[in-house]
């Protein structure tokens, strides 16, 4: 589990095809990394990946064909900045919201506009994702926990404060870029309970 509070920005150092899927090498940049262990989970642009090898400045993770097909990771260029968050511990503060690292769909940045010192970002999203998005609810965009300011049939809007832009990969994200989307966990479980036989 994660919180959607980004701990560091790294970059995609390399990708290597492996038997139909891919091994990613990710430089950790500013992510606190001294006590990393093989087998632990790290959210990479909101995608939960397992550390399979590491050194002092990078880790490697395998991305399955499912992950490559349903997230932005398969299309990212080497050198792309990445939002990174290590899995939360039971005694951590929950500063964002509960995030699983299981991406529900891919959206796109539609617009970015100044809003006082903040920025108002609008994202498109697939209909199967938008059904779970609610005004003033939470959504995870490329691993970042955000509050929804507005939602309609085509997408949703959020406000990014200067701190968020400066300390995440949003500093390098532009209109037209694809982003990973994960809806609030609670919404999925409520729907399942309401439609259970």
From TrEMBL:
Q: Which residues form a coiled coil?
A: none
* Pathway assignment: Cofactor biosynthesis; riboflavin biosynthesis; riboflavin from 2-hydroxy-3-oxobutyl phosphate and 5-amino-6-(D-ribitylamino)uracil: step 2/2
Q: Keywords in UniProt for this one? A: Repeat, Riboflavin biosynthesis, Transferase
Entry-linked SUPFAM superfamilies? Riboflavin synthase domain-like
**GO molecular function, one example?**
riboflavin synthase activity
Q: In the UniProt record, does the keyword Nucleotidyltransferase occur?
A: no
Database matches in CDD domains:
Riboflavin_synthase_like
EC number assigned by the record: 2.5.1.9
Q: Give the catalysed reaction(s), semicolon-separated.
A: 2 6,7-dimethyl-8-(1-D-ribityl)lumazine + H(+) = 5-amino-6-(D-ribitylamino)uracil + riboflavin
Q: Which Gene3D superfamilies match?
A: 2.40.30.20
Q: Where are the Lumazine-binding repeats?
A: 1-97, 98-194
Any Pfam family matching the protein = Lum_binding
Domain spans labelled Lumazine-binding: 1-97, 98-194
**What is the role of this chain?**
Catalyzes the dismutation of two molecules of 6,7-dimethyl-8-ribityllumazine, resulting in the formation of riboflavin and 5-amino-6-(D-ribitylamino)uracil.
- What name does this protein carry? Riboflavin synthase
């Amino acid at each position: 589990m994660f919180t959607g509070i980004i701990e560091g920005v790294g970059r995609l150092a390399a990708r290597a095809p492996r038997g139909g899927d891919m091994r990613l090498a990710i430089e950790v940049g500013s992510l606190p990394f001294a006590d990393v262990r093989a087998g632990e989970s790290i959210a990479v642009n909101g995608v939960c990946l397992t550390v399979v090898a590491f050194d002092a400045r990078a880790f490697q993770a395998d991305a399955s064909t499912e992950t490559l097909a349903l997230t932005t990771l398969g299309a990212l260029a080497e050198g792309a900045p990445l939002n990174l968050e290590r899995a939360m511990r039971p005694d951590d503060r929950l500063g964002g919201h509960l995030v699983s690292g299981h991406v529900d769909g891919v959206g796109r940045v539609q617009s970015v506009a100044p809003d006082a010192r903040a920025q108002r970002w609008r994202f498109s999203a697939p209909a199967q994702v938008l059904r779970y998005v609610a005004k003033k609810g939470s959504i995870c965009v490329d691993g970042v926990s955000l509050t929804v300011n507005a939602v309609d049939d085509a997408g949703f809007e959020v406000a990014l404060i200067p701190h968020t832009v400066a300390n995440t990969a949003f500093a390098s994200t532009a209109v037209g870029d694809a982003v990973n989307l994960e809806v609030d966990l609670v919404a999925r479980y409520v729907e399942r309970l309401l439609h259970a036989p």
